[in-house]
Amino acid sequence: MISHHKTSINPLYFRNGEETAPRFRMPDQGMLPENAYQMIHDELTLDGKPKLNLATFVTTSMESSADRLYAEAFNKNLIDKCEYQQTTSIEDRCLRMIADLWHSPRPLKTMGVSTTGSSEACMLGGLALKRRWQKERKKQGKPIDRPNIVFSSAVQIVWKKFANYWDVEPRYVNITPNRPCMDPEDVLAVIDENTIGVVSTFGVTYTGLYEPVETIAKALDELESSTGLDIPIHVDAASGGFIAPFLQPDLVWDFQLPRVKSINVSGHKYGLVYPGIGWIIWREAEDLPEDLIFHVSYLGGNIPTFALSFSRPSAQVLLQYYNFLRLGKAGYYEVQRASQSVAYFLKLTIQTIGPFEVLTDGSDIPVVTWRLKEGYTSNWNLYNLSDQLLTFGWQVPAYPLPPDMEDVTIMRVVVRNGFSMNLAHLFLKNLQQAVSFLDSLESPIPHDMSCDISIRH
């Protein structure tokens, strides 16, 4: 018998002494490449199918041309800017294109960086807010030991990490059934002279809604007029930054608002690139404090760097540029519009299925959320429905809303490029089958708290 501490090897391939491999320590001897590949390949067949993962915002497929480009570039280290000067040039072009897309006053001159994703970009944006606040306070001879930052209770987890890691007090504006997004009046109620900035989420992870950046900016403008407090805004547009410019071009949320000093976006979400790329842009160069930028000389030149990571792949940057060239603004519009059309279709159908009340319909980012109608059943809940959908292969998260609404459990479908209308029909068929099965139960399903897992990335 082979214990769970060892992994068996296909007897068609193993050499003498290779019958098993330890599971939790490095083997003393290596094995044939075919064996190593097959062992890992077999385990990965138990993973869910990326195409059916309706939980994630992250891109799961690209064109074959992009895959080829990826394979040609995965061995280039992005930090080696002197060695890979064309890659560096392409990274800069992407930054300028995004700055222009977001109406930067000087897109060719402002500062920006690519990151491993929006989480790193948010950290950098928060650091810039804190450093700008500290410098201004020092000029005024005031203490700098009690900074705070304001965001919604529905904020992505990275902002809670930022506040914890960099000793900034988080001040939450709780969402409510009547106020599903951060409300400007509630924002003003928690601001004081120690506030380094307000973070507005442009595409809330829980619901897909845009927070009202323009209205919040107007409230902060009025606050400055009456008190002199100049509070900047960072827009966390991880999802919405590559949606609004194409689907809602008249919506004012970006650098058209002078109070918005920085914006981040995930290139690997609706930027349509494989996982591992984010961007942050500052409105103008002076909005990024110079003393946060390091200059490295041991890579073959005097290289400026502002990042939490150092070595990382360059392929995703090249794939972002590929998409910009391949799609252009018209192409991005068509891709995002197709996703939103699928979201609208899902919403219209789901609201006709007996148990459900639709909460958000995909009119901001292409995300549809729903809850069980009050008193519909005591035999099953949305966690049970999530488990049942998994039997068909669909990964659909169920999770509670943030504080003050945590008694409300919802489900969410993220519509991404590749989730076609045909797949939507198949999903809805399976959803109705799952509901029919659960409705046929004569007694409640035993509740397992360990199954209540929030999947919200």
TrEMBL record:
Gene3D superfamilies: 3.90.1150.160, 4.10.280.50, Type I PLP-dependent aspartate aminotransferase-like (Major domain). Belongs to the group II decarboxylase family. It comes from Neobacillus novalis. It catalyses: L-glutamate + H(+) = 4-aminobutanoate + CO2. Its cofactor is pyridoxal 5'-phosphate. GO terms for molecular function: aromatic-L-amino-acid decarboxylase activity; glutamate decarboxylase activity; pyridoxal phosphate binding. InterPro entries: Glutamate_decarboxylase, PyrdxlP-dep_de-COase, PyrdxlP-dep_Trfase, PyrdxlP-dep_Trfase_major. GO terms for cellular component: cytosol. Pfam families: Pyridoxal_deC. The keyword Disulfide bond does not apply. One of its GO terms (biological process) is L-glutamate catabolic process. Keywords: Decarboxylase, Lyase, Pyridoxal phosphate. It comes from the Bacteria. This is Glutamate decarboxylase. The modification N6-(pyridoxal phosphate)lysine is found at residue 269. Its EC number is 4.1.1.15. It is an enzyme of class 4 (lyase).
